[in-house]
Write the structure tokens for this entry.
Amino acid sequence: MSRKRNKYSRRTSTSLKKKKVVATVIIVVTAILVLIAAAIGMGAYLRHKAEAYEPENKYQFDGNTPPPGSGTAAVRAPMFVYGEYLYGYIQKGYSELSLSLGTAESVAFDSETAKAVTGVEVGEIKLSEYAAAIHKYEGRACAYFKSSAFDCEDENLRRVRKAYEISLLCEAAASGIDDILILGINVTEENSDEVARYLSELNAAAGECSVGVAVNVGVLLMTENEIYLAGKLKSACDYLALDLRQLDFSDTEQSEGSDVPTSLAEYLNELKYYLSTYSLRLVFSDGNKHFFDEAIDLGFENVQVADDFTE
């Protein structure tokens, strides 16, 4: 006797198969969505890591910050042009600004000392007002000046020009300038004693205003021949600066085995002993001011931008 088939048995078997297929599809789709989400998440994570990644510098520097008690401090001073929006610099985080005092022949500010000298052009800038505005924001007024006293071959004329420049710069210090950098002196073994006396006299007369002088690489490298011009100058004033206003690598080609630096990091790496030993302030010009930020990225805290006075 045959067993009678349940009329719902076929329908139940088909339904179960359909449910299994649907469940499988759901599992596969869910797995795909999870993989896609994971891929998106991983991509976002890797992108964030890539954006946050800072490549390690090939060169390591000890910095150039003056030690405590040296008579000066590190500055991070971009070049400020009179008439620009002062507070705009403060908002960008600059508490030191680099101001031009001009040259011995063309003084940038309204100077009573310069007015007393025949043939000198005198500006209309009220230096004390700018210095006061900078001090209002707890900043430092860092000025620079191009000297020409040592261009005079006659000793008597040179003595007069030195006295004039010292009086002029002391007037700037009395107007509120906190830091004066002397540019334009070609220091040699022959005139180094006289330059040192000039700096020492200016430094003593300028009161609390820091006084420094910019030198070229040649002055530093003379140390290798036991000619210590840099040390002599450093003992006569508050700080030394390395004049890099004409530094340019645009025409430099890197060739295999070449020792010629092709970047700021390579160039400074060859001088890092002097940079740290003398706490050399790095001075760039408006023409190569992109090195200003690059030097800071390399770890240098004592950096300034000044006019190259080529025009």
In short: The chain has a mean pLDDT of 88.
